[in-house]
Structures are given as C-alpha cells and as structure tokens.
Amino acid sequence: MRRSYILTASCPDRIGIIAAVSGLIARLGGSILEASQHADAAAGWFFMRYEIDATTLAASREELAAAIEEIAGSFAMRWQLNDSARPKRVLVLASRTDHCLADLIYRWRSGTLPGELVGVVSNHTLLAAQVEAAGLAFHHVPVTAERRLQAFEAIERIFEALAADVMVLARYMQILPPPLCARLSGRIINIHHSFLPSFVGANPYRQAYERGVKIIGATCHYVTEALDAGPIIEQDVVRIHHGDTVERLIALGQDVEKNVLARGLRYHLEDRVLRHGNKTVVFA
Amino acid sequence: MRRSYILTASCPDRIGIIAAVSGLIARLGGSILEASQHADAAAGWFFMRYEIDATTLAASREELAAAIEEIAGSFAMRWQLNDSARPKRVLVLASRTDHCLADLIYRWRSGTLPGELVGVVSNHTLLAAQVEAAGLAFHHVPVTAERRLQAFEAIERIFEALAADVMVLARYMQILPPPLCARLSGRIINIHHSFLPSFVGANPYRQAYERGVKIIGATCHYVTEALDAGPIIEQDVVRIHHGDTVERLIALGQDVEKNVLARGLRYHLEDRVLRHGNKTVVFA
Amino acid sequence: MRRSYILTASCPDRIGIIAAVSGLIARLGGSILEASQHADAAAGWFFMRYEIDATTLAASREELAAAIEEIAGSFAMRWQLNDSARPKRVLVLASRTDHCLADLIYRWRSGTLPGELVGVVSNHTLLAAQVEAAGLAFHHVPVTAERRLQAFEAIERIFEALAADVMVLARYMQILPPPLCARLSGRIINIHHSFLPSFVGANPYRQAYERGVKIIGATCHYVTEALDAGPIIEQDVVRIHHGDTVERLIALGQDVEKNVLARGLRYHLEDRVLRHGNKTVVFA
Amino acid sequence: MRRSYILTASCPDRIGIIAAVSGLIARLGGSILEASQHADAAAGWFFMRYEIDATTLAASREELAAAIEEIAGSFAMRWQLNDSARPKRVLVLASRTDHCLADLIYRWRSGTLPGELVGVVSNHTLLAAQVEAAGLAFHHVPVTAERRLQAFEAIERIFEALAADVMVLARYMQILPPPLCARLSGRIINIHHSFLPSFVGANPYRQAYERGVKIIGATCHYVTEALDAGPIIEQDVVRIHHGDTVERLIALGQDVEKNVLARGLRYHLEDRVLRHGNKTVVFA
C-alpha cells in the first residue's frame, strides 16, 4: 500500500469545484489514484473524495492543506485531509456480547482493518481478559442509573486521552447522552441488530420470528441524538428458514452484524463516507 | 415432469403422524418423490408435504383422498391433495402498472409458471390490449367510491365463474373488502413494494430514498383483513446506491417485486406453503 | 431526467488529467452531475467518466468535443462524448429462446431501458410474431454452413443500415466470425449462460447439475475473437437446491441471465463501462 | 436445545421406506421434530434425515439403533444415528493463515458451533500460541518432502487418539495422501479459496483479478482422492469492484471462505449432508 492523502469535501453545488480542487492538486504535482464526485441534485449539494499519491506530491501535507483552505472559503466547503500513514484511532465500546468486538480485534491483528484499535470500554468486566490478551487496554466504566452522566464523562475523557478519532458501539447496550452524540457528531458508529427501518424496540430477532419474515438484517449507522435514526452507512441481510429458532436467528444475525459493522467501519476509516443531513454518500 | 399428487397437511403435533400418513401411501403402492415435515415446537403444530408419484399408485386420486380422510379426523388434520395434472387456476388483478403482470404472462406462456392464468381483472382499461394479445380474457371492473362493494362482488363472481383457485394482486391499487379477504383466506396473494415490516404508508421508495437506506426490498404475502399484515411467503432485496434517484429506486424495486411475486406464487402453486396463525412454513 | 453529456476517457496515467478535463468543462460553464476517476496502478492507465448537465453548458456538443479533442492528443487519450438526448441504438440477435429478448422488449417499452431497440435479427422465424407485435422490425437471416459468411455480412449491413450502436447477443446460438468481432470491438455484448470462468463447453446447466454445485450464474461480456473470453461487464448468481432438476436449473438460470444482461447492457448504454486490455472498469 | 437423535439414511429408492422408518420410530414412542426425504429420480436413490425428540423415546439409543438395523438390510440402507448430546469431535488442520481457524475457535467458544474442537494440527508453529490460548491442544507436525507419509501417519494417529469424527482443512496448505482420503472418506472437509469449478491451480484471487471477474467465491467440499473434485457441501460469493487490488480480493475472499466453511461444517455437524456419488443432498 503506497502512502496516500485522502481529501474529502462537500459544499453547495456550483460550477468549477472539481476544476479548482484538481487544478490545485495538479499544480502541486499530485497524482490522483482514485477520485469520485457526486452532485445531489435534490439537495443542491456536491460531494468529492480524492485519493492522492503522497509520494508524488511536491508539497507537505500542511502545504496541501493550506492550499485547500485557501479555496475552501469561496466554495463554502467542509473538508478533511487524511494521511494513510496516520490511520484513524478507534475506541470500541462493548457490553457483554463479544461477536463484533472479537471480529474487530481479529481484523486489527491480522492487518485488514484500515485503522488502529486503541482501547475498549465496557460497562461490564466480562470481556476484560480477552481484550487484554489481544494487547489492548480495557477500561471498565460501570453505567448506573445514579452516575450515568459521570460515566459518559469518563468515557469521553478516555476517548480524548487516547486521541481517538472514532467511537464504535459494538453491541454496547447503553444509550449515549444526546450532548455527547452532538459533540462527537459523525464520529460515533453503531451497529443496529435489525434492518432499519424495521421492528421498533427491543429484541428484533424475536419480533422477526413472530412476524415470520424470511430475511433479517443489520444496519451500521452514525449515532445522533435521535435513537437509531442517524445516517445509515451500510446494511446487509441474511435469508432465514421456517425451522430457525429465535436462538438460531440471533446466531445468524450476529454474523450479519459483524460483517456489516466491519464493512461500514472500513468505509469510515478509509474516508469513503460523507454525510449530508441525515443521509450518507458512500464512495465504496 | 411426471404426474404427481401433492399432499399437504397440518395438525396438532403428536406421535405417529408420519407413520400413519406414509403407511397409508405405502399400502396404496405410492412412491414418494419428496417429503418434508416440520414440527413447530413453540406452536405445538405439525406440518407436512408429500409429493407422490401418481403413476405408481394402485388407487385413484379419490381413493387416496378417501383413505386420508379416514385418518385425518383422529389427528384433527387439515389437508389438501392436489394433482399436478390439474394445475391451479390464477386470476390476476392489476391496475395500471404492468411489470408484475407482464412477467407472469411471460412465465405462463413460456411454460415456467406451474399454474394456469385464466384471466385478468383491472379497474382501468390501460392493460386490456396487452392482456388480450396474450390470449387472456380481460375484465374491466371499475372501482368507484359509490359502487365499491358491487365492484368486488363482480370480481368475486368472475373468480368463481372461472373456477379460479388463487387471486393474485399484481400491484392492484385497491384495498379489498375484509369479508372478501376472509372468504378467500389463503387464496389471495399480494406483492408489497417494500420489505415488510418497514416503511408504513404510501410511496415506500420515496421514503427509502429520504431515509437513505442502502437496500430496498419487496414482500409477497397472503392477504388478510389486516392491511399488509398477512402471512409472509417470500421476500427479497436489492442493494441501492447514493446516486440512485427515486425513479431508479422504483425501477430497481420493480425488478425485485416481480421476482419475489413469481417465486412466492410458484411456492403457492406447487403447494409448498402451509399457513399457521400469521406465519408460513415454506417447504422450498 | 435532465439532458446530459457523458464524457468517458482513458489514457496512460499522469499528473494533471482531471485538472485539464474538469478545467475545460468549467471554462465552458458545464455543471458536473457525477464524475468518477480510477487509476489502475498495475496497468498504469487512467479512466474517467463525467456526466455534464447539458443545460448549463455555454457551448454546443460540437464545441465541447472540439475542446476535448484539443487536449486529448497531449494525453494520448481515447474518449467519447455522448448525448443523453441521443440514446444508443440496439440491434438484438436471438435464435429460438426468448427470455432475454422478451425482457429487453419489456424494458424498452416501459421506458426503463436507457437505449432504443431498433430491430431484431434471428436465424429462425419462431420469434417473428412477438417481435413485430412489439412494433419492432424482424430480420430473418438464416445461418447455414455453406452461407455463413454471407449471413454475417447481411447482419452487418442491417446493423449499419439501422445506424445501430451496439449489437446484443440475446442467447444467439451462432458463433460470430472473428473479423466481425474485431470490426465491432466493444460494440457486441453477449450473455453467457454460466458463471465465467467455469464449465467449458455446451450445456453448462447440465454440467452444474452433475457436478452438484450449490450456486449457478451468468456473465455479460463484450465479444472478442476469443470465444467467451472477452472483457466481463457484469455477473450474478443464484442459489440452487438438491431437489432442482436440470429443467429447473435452466429456468432459474434464465432469470439470472436476463437480469445480468439487462444490468450489463444498461451500464454500456449509460457509458459506465471502460475497457482496457481484457478487463473493464465499471463506474456503476 | 432439547436432546435429539439424528437419523440419516440413504438407499436405493423403492416404495415403503418412509413408512418403515417412521413406523418404527412411532412404535418406540418417538416424536419427530423435523424430517426431510428426497428421491433422486435420475440416480434412483433415496435420502432421509429424521430429528427425533430423545426425551419422548421409550427406548435407549441402542434399542433404536438395533431396530433400525433390523430393517436396514431389506432396504440396502446405509444409515447413521447420532445423539445431539454427543456432539461431533473436530480436528482442525491449518498452516500459517488463520482466518478460518480463528473463526472456528470463536464459534466454538461462543457456543454457536454444534461440535467440539479437540485440537489443531499444523505444519508450522506460527499459530501455536493462539491455539493454546484458546485452551486447545496444538500439534506441530512438520511436513517435509522426505517424511511426508510419516507426517500424515502421525496426523492420522492424532485423529484417532482424539477420537475425532471429522478433520477440517482450514486453509491447510498440504495435499493429503490419497489412501488417507479414502480411509476417512466423508470425514475430511476442505475450504477451497475459489468458486468451484473455476480457476484451476494456484492463486485463484490473482487469476480472478487478471480475468476481471465481478464476483469471487469459495467452496466447502469433502476431500476425495481427486484434488478439489470432491462432493460440494456449500458455496458462496462476494461482489468485487474494479478498484480492488489483489490484496483486497484476498481479504474479501477470506471473509467468504470463513463463512462458507462455518456453514458447510455446521451442516456436516448437524448431519444435514448426505453424499451419493460425487454429489451431496443438504437438508438445510
């Protein structure tokens, strides 16, 4: 994998955006490995992602960033410039169920997760040994009715102390306080154990069983202040069978959950996801 | 395709059901091509489907039926015995949209629909020419606010006059009167243009677009008195893309709709679907 | 659908391609609806597709083309500029099997095929009535051992007389002469009734049945002089079951074939496919 | 999960098989939870699988087995009777790649593998620590050109000493000696990193990349003396993209491999797979 800079940007749509950005990159000698642009006509918004070969660039990352900043204002552009040599740092929150966590740890250790796991927070101690055996720091932060806000303040401090970029709720069974969701907007990713929009409320696999659906699914989305209503990053489904018990549905669902989370998180870590309003553009 | 009898049956679960039924078939010399049995432990209910080689049977269909009837009482068994040489007769209801109708007509004409189309009812005349060109009778039954019940009485008379076995709502844009649904319980099949349970109400493709889902689907189900809540026979999905407009979602969705309807209807026509409560067992 | 110009181009990779092309479009006032660029590092080749809002362009299609031509030389660029208001013209070749043909006709008539069917050529007369009923010209060109080359000369003349852009082999059971494949390189699309690379030779569904595979598929590809070895545009699969006979495999396979062909052809008609060597880049 | 006996049987097809077997079970008071029968008309062979509620049976497993044995002869029936309380014992063979192994270990530890891992054999030591950390015995058996047969004799002794029921080649990079394959016929399962039948030879992912296919897959099959030609248990695929490098194809392929192996192995462990000739019937 050669080193690259990933530029993502979005702004109100108008003529000349690509020309301005690609012209700037060309003037600095940057070779473009992959580029995608999309105009959402209904929203009047423009989205772009550039993957630039860092080794070809006759400028530092800072100089490139400064050049982008110069033109960003005139386009009212929100942008990010990330360096593949500085992978995003991931803090995982889990409770007792470990299928998503174990999968993320495996991918991280085997080098197929394009990010860095930096620690695991849990409201239980059940997963401590397995996290530590993987060489990861385990932070036990109990969440009680009385000390709920303090618990999430502690989690936010851990997130900041570890200089984490993204918080992953890997079947974390607590609802985050809305102000925390707002502060980390676009940086908290959840895996929902259902195909959204779908069954509302607890135990979607039992509801799926009782409704007699033939397919179940899972949804990876950004967390917002509105529960389970944030921008969707990725979804997938699996076909089920009349002989499957609720327990089997849960097992099949867990496989989908971990695959959908792994894929959605990869898109985020590779800067393939741009949000606008409550939707995402995914340059997969 | 050799001629076969299809026996489907369900009853409260108890010991000896398979032995009784298969013993009876063996005594009449029947060779079994395919057999499936399922006990739903939660519901305490037993389901079975037998495909019997008709050419091996030392008894007529009537004698076989009489023999089954003799044991059915002691098991409180609901059963059906169908003859592959007497394919089910299908009456299709459509409005203006024709993708499902055209697909069913194509399958019927090409010999891959295991049933007989016997006519099309529509509340519009738009599809008349295409239906008649296929050699099918077209029945125009307008449905107006004032003469709604009379319209459905007329449709029911057409269904009976044609000796139809199953009514297929191929994107038929009218809600059937509950008493009709009750009378034809298990004999009306609808294709719903959404992955149930999912978006409620009109225009699910626009809702899917606005919610930013990554997958859309369709659901084939039996019609009951409760709207869109009947037993599900088959579902499927298709992955969509951020560049897809609502129009493209509709086009992609129509492909799923026609495939799901064709598959669900095939299962029904081949007696692969057994209902119990609001669920189905599909011996696919 | 607003009118758009689609620019596709490929060339040896170097710095400044996007800047040059997008700069040119911006100077002519063109608003870009969608743009995708891909560099194949292994091949050292660059691919791009621009969808330009025609209504925003302060230049005619010819002026835009002339401006592109000016820069194309310096990049050794192969390019095309198509107008959504001038959909591609499709000549279909079929033999006796009609599932793909009927599907294309349906999509064309219902307005979801982004191209224009202009005629059907067949080596048999079986499909004549159905083609003509759809308002399409039917050309019967028998292909016999003695007059094979003359037959394909006739087909090529029909293709030219109809000003067709693309020839679709919709389960056409004749092998095209290599010189014809060479002359129409990139303009002949075939649907292969197998998942390539896979079973070699005739009757892949029987081979699949005998090998006991659990999944069968189909492949849409450009036709080249090497049989079944041309650049792949699209593929898909369907799961099969031990109870499925060869006949059922054929029926299931036909559904996949028509869906894969429809999708692959749509990509071609929307200028989403760029070839290089024996591979394709598909900006889907 | 209630305790059950699983009876699988196959024999030449004739009238009365189901009646004989289900009659026998009913006489012993056995309640049947699930039953499937299939006649392969082309092969003239009959297959069945019964799942019997052990708690209802007025006979021991041995008495049931003796009763089956009594009728088996007259039907020339090959049969097995397994006890869900005695899960199959699995010996895993691996080399250096661990994605399949790690997945199997995770499923075993989390209770979703319906079998018992009893040890891991490897021709390398790389995976020793991770295997032992999971509480599993690790057997290092180097395979050298000079001592190849001895190595496999050692592996077979380990298999027998552990009373293993099935040997899983979890990306084990050695070819087993044909006599070993013959002796353990139907008891060795391999995961092949390609969609069979497909690319022949080494590095199928590179071949897939070079051929430009749009879908890659994996195949789980029984090992026979003919390399990669044994009866297929399960297959699956994943869609790929023109931007995917060979490395990404490998990563995507590994996800498919582990899922296909897990599913195929589950079918085997639950006695859902019956072989006949070079094909399988899978009562999934």
Structure write-up:
The structure is a homotetramer of 284-residue chains. Chain A is of the alpha/beta class. In chain A, 47% of the residues are buried. The first copy, chain A, has helices at residues 17-27, 61-75, 99-109, 128-133, 148-161, 178-183, 204-211, 246-269, and strands at residues 4-12, 31-40, 45-53, 78-83, 88-94, 115-122, 138-140, 166-169, 188-192, 215-222, 232-239, 273-276, 279-282. Chain A folds into two domains: 4-83, 2-Layer Sandwich (Alpha-Beta Plaits), CATH 3.30.70.260; 89-282, Formyl transferase, N-terminal domain (Rossmann fold, 3-Layer(aba) Sandwich), CATH 3.40.50. The longest helix of chain A has 24 residues, at 246-269. Chain A is globular. In chain A, helix 1 runs antiparallel to helix 2 (61-75). In chain A, strand 2 and strand 3 (45-53) form a beta hairpin. In chain A, strands 7-6-5-8-9-10-11 form a seven-stranded mixed β-sheet, with helices on both faces. The mean pLDDT of chain A is 95. Chain A binds chain B through residues 38, 40, 195-199, 210-215, 217, 231-237, 242-243, 278-282, and chain B through 38, 40, 195-199, 210-215, 217, 231-237, 242-243, 278-282. Strand 2 (31-40) of chain B pairs antiparallel with strand 2 of chain D, so a sheet runs across the interface.
For the report, how would you describe the main beta sheet of chain A?
A: 7 strands, mixed
Q: Tell me, what's the shape of chain A?
A: globular
CATH class term of the largest domain in chain A: Alpha Beta
Order of helix and strand elements from N to C terminus of chain A:
EHEEHEEHEHEHEHEHEEHEE
Strand content of chain A: 25-35%
- Oligomeric composition of the shown chains: homotetramer
**What is the domain tally of chain A?**
2
> Count of DSSP helices of chain A?
8
* CATH fold naming of the largest domain in chain A: Rossmann fold
**Average pLDDT reading of chain A:** 95
In whole angstroms, the N-to-C terminal distance of chain A is 18 Å
Give helix % range of chain A: 25-40%
Number of DSSP strand runs of chain A: 13
> Class by helix and strand content of chain A?
alpha/beta
- What pair of chains forms the biggest interface? A-B, 28 and 28 residues
Main β-sheet, spatial strand arrangement of chain A: 7-6-5-8-9-10-11
Provide the CATH architecture of the largest domain in chain A: 3-Layer(aba) Sandwich
Name of the CATH superfamily of the largest domain in chain A = Formyl transferase, N-terminal domain
Q: Name the poorly predicted regions of chain A.
A: none
